[in-house]
Design goal:
heterodimer, A: 617 residues, Rossmann fold, six-stranded parallel beta sheet, B: 127 residues
């Protein structure tokens, strides 16, 4: 950068000095010389090749010789300087420095509370999208340049500052603003346990009080993370196994859990209750082990199918094989089994397992063997899977048919199928395969994190709800279905304080009575009731589930609501707008301004007068 | 011996000496102040400024600041001279020359500060 500037300065000064020193002549033949001002003027337009000509008088021969020399000198120095500057701008290190500087600046400018997301893989992408949708700011640190490009192309409603780098490196975390007071948490979502561990350690060392949420896929890492107070450790395998155990143990409460944890506005489906009985567990990896452990705890027996039982540490009685072939499934006792869990780390195998299992059992319950293929005729994705499955297990395709004929007279509920989806790209295939439950780790992680950071009350509610009876859950499920119609409910919290709900706080401070019933009414027509249910009221740290409508609110209370996604915005009228709240309280439309009050008073007196004159007559 | 250090010291010192040479003389006497000397002082000051670019230390920042001040003062002096001669027909009368020289006097102070800092740095380093 210095050299081109020095060259330019020297070229200019040499040219200007020469111009001043060389004598010229006026048209009248009198000797004349450039002064510095005119020399600088002349050299400036000459060097930039604008060239106004020989000003103010035509040049002498000596001046023209010097002009020639100066032209080459200055023009070449300009080209050199511009070329150097352009190449500097294109230089990758320089660009990186600029990108880094921009990143730091945009992080500083956020102002609102934000989370640092380490790792923009499948999980990171889902989570950042959901955070933006909820108006929560995020900063992304990602190692993979193509993932960063994906982020740049993503159409997000907020600017998400991002930097290319390893999130476990402390300087990247510092640049991402970990020390800023409005950084509220670090979410370690990379696909590598070791990286997540490093991010958690770095975050906890750089700022002790920061909330750190980590994804871990092995129990070693989980224990390690827990050892230095990571706030939340999410293991998708345990999460799903816990789900499953709950579905077995308390199906209605599990339904509630699933509805509330999902983002609102999705079709409300009631998952089938998994049957008790023997389960076949294909693949005894990290997922398989978690499932086996939780199922054992629930008192459900499992038969493990695993190609390398010794290496995986599978229990005794393990059937050797992948589970993609009918013969291993039959050996494991598929005809007596209640369900099959396809839990290998290969999506093609998992799909093949569930297809084979369904094929075998449906042939048994239904005499027509081809019915299953006909069903999926309209879905090309399933067709492809079918073809693959038939190639893979062509040998056995004839056998189950014979077998099926024997058991035909004993009709049984069809097999419960659970498949593990490893890559989101394959989601369409899993959807087309129509299994009863799909284990999607990235989605589960995202929902869990969202419920942790957006509505911490929900987590508390769900923990409380776990201890309630099935009848209680069943009643609540009926209420939710009646309230929200056919979409999953949104959940939101209302905090009664001056900042979050100024209208509510003012009304309560003024001594008015505000009940939950008032909050739950339509701000335009108080006769209508909003499609919402108060799930939990936290009063002075004490939680009460499903508070009654006449429950009075006090300053400092927190209420968790669930309801139709539109109800949240409508409810905000009552919490933020004191006119709306007055109307809902039935206090009438009292004018707020002094002139308004004066006019209202005038009206009242004139009305009283006309009333009086009417009554006189 | 480092050639870069030689060039660096040379230009900074030369900026001061040229500036001083221009400044020397009666403040309002045009004959004591040569326009070529002012031109040379400006060019050398600009070169000295560019040489000071890119030093991230605190000392480097202060050195750059002194140079920028000197540039500003000298260019202002040249501008005053040019306007007086070209625009206002006043020519090099004593009043104009006095203001040009006083501006260059300000630049001289900045240059002295710059050289002092350079000497201080050299002495403290002792290499």
């Amino acid at each position: 950068m210095r050299a081109p500037l020095l060259v330019l300065i020297s070229a200019y000064s040499i040219s200007i000095a020469g111009m001043v020193l060389i004598p010229g002549m006026t048209p009248e033949g009198e000797p004349w010389r450039f002064d510095f001002f005119h020399a600088f003027y002349f050299v400036s337009f000459m060097a930039s090749t604008i060239g106004f000509g020989e000003i103010p008088y035509p040049f002498t021969g000596a001046q023209r010789i010097w002009t020639l020399i100066s032209i080459y000198l200055t023009v070449i120095s300009w080209l050199y300087a511009i070329g150097t500057i352009l190449s500097l701008i294109q230089d990758s290190t320089f660009r990186r420095a600029v990108a880094e500087w921009r990143f730091i600046r945009s992080v500083r400018r956020i102002g609102a509370p934000f989370y640092i997301v380490g790792g923009y893989g499948e999980t990171g992408r889902l989570l950042v999208g959901e955070l933006c949708r909820r108006g929560i700011r995020a900063v992304v640190v990602e190692r993979n340049p193509s993932a960063i490009q994906d982020l740049e192309l993503e159409n997000l409603s907020y600017e998400v500052p991002h930097v290319l780098g390893d999130a476990s490196a402390s300087h990247n975390l510092l640049e991402a603003g970990i020390r800023l007071s409005n950084c509220v948490g670090v979410l370690a979502l990379t696909s590598d346990d070791q990286s997540n561990l490093k991010i958690a350690i770095a975050a906890k060392l750089l700022r002790k009080k920061l909330k750190v949420v980590c994804v871990a896929r092995s129990s070693d890492t989980m224990a390690n993370m827990a050892s230095f107070n990571t706030d939340h450790i999410i293991n998708p395998f345990y999460l799903f196994a816990d789900h499953m155990a709950r579905a077995l143990h308390a199906p209605r409460s599990h339904v509630i859990y699933q509805w509330l944890v999902q983002p609102g506005g999705q079709p409300l489906t009631e998952p089938r209750t998994p049957p008790r009985g023997t389960w076949l567990l294909c693949g005894y990896g990290r997922f398989g082990k978690a499932m086996a452990r939780y199922l054992r705890y629930e008192g459900v027996s499992t038969v493990v199918i695993e190609p390398f039982p010794d290496a995986a540490g599978a229990p005794e009685g393990t059937v050797i094989g992948r589970g993609t072939e009918a013969v291993t499934l039959r050996e494991a006792g598929i005809y007596e089994a209640a369900g099959v869990i396809a839990g290998t780390d290969d999506d093609a195998n998992n799909l093949s397992i569930v297809m084979t299992a369904r094929d075998m059992t449906s042939k048994r319950t239904r005499p027509k063997a081809s019915s299953f293929v006909d069903e999926d005729d309209n879905s090309p994705a399933a067709e492809r899977v079918n073809a693959q499955h038939h190639n893979g297990s062509g040998l056995e395709s004839g056998e189950p048919n014979r077998n099926g004929a024997d058991d035909d007279e004993r009709p049984k509920e069809s097999l419960y199928l659970i498949a593990r989806e490893n890559r989101h790209d394959n989601h369409l295939l899993f959807e087309a395969s129509r299994v009863d439950m799909v284990m999607q780790s990235s989605r589960m992680i995202v929902w869990h994190i969202l419920s942790l950071i957006t509505t911490p009350l929900l987590d508390r509610f769900l923990r409380q709800a776990r201890h309630r009876s099935e009848e209680w859950a069943s009643d609540l499920a009926i209420r939710i279905r009646a309230t929200c119609g056919e979409v999953t409910p949104d959940t939101w919290a209302v905090t009664v304080d001056g900042e979050m709900a100024p209208a509510l706080a003012d009304a309560i401070a003024a001594g008015h009575e505000v009940t939950l019933d008032i909050l739950g009414r339509h701000p335009r027509d108080r006769g209508k009731i909003l499609p919402s249910i108060p799930l939990m009221l936290v009063h002075k740290g004490e939680e009460s589930l499903l508070p009654a409508d006449h429950q009075e609110l006090e300053i400092g209370d927190e209420v968790l609501f669930c309801g139709h996604p539109k109800a949240e915005d409508l409810m905000r009228w009552a919490t933020l707008n004191s006119h709306a709240l007055d109307y809902l309280r039935g206090a009438g439309n009292e004018p707020q301004s002094s002139i308004g009050r004066w006019i209202a008073a005038m009206r009242r007196t004139s009305a009283a007068r006309t009333d009086a004159s009417h009554s006189k007559r | 011996m480092n050639f870069e250090k030689v060039a660096f010291g040379f230009f900074i010192l030369l900026a001061l000496t040229l500036n001083f040479g221009f400044f020397l003389g009666d403040v309002d006497n045009p004959d004591h102040h040569d326009v070529f000397e002012l031109f040379a002082a400006i060019v050398v000051n600009l070169i000295a400024t560019v040489l000071k670019f890119g030093d991230r230390t605190h000392m480097g920042a202060v050195l750059l600041a002194t140079s920028l001040v000197a540039d500003l003062q000298l260019i202002a002096a040249a501008a005053v001279w040019a306007v007086a001669v070209q625009v206002s027909d006043a020519g090099t009368d004593p009043a104009t020359i006095a203001s040009v020289v006083s501006l260059s006097g300000g630049a001289l102070l900045a240059n002295i500060a710059s050289v002092t800092l350079l000497i201080v740095e050299t002495v403290t380093l002792r290499r």
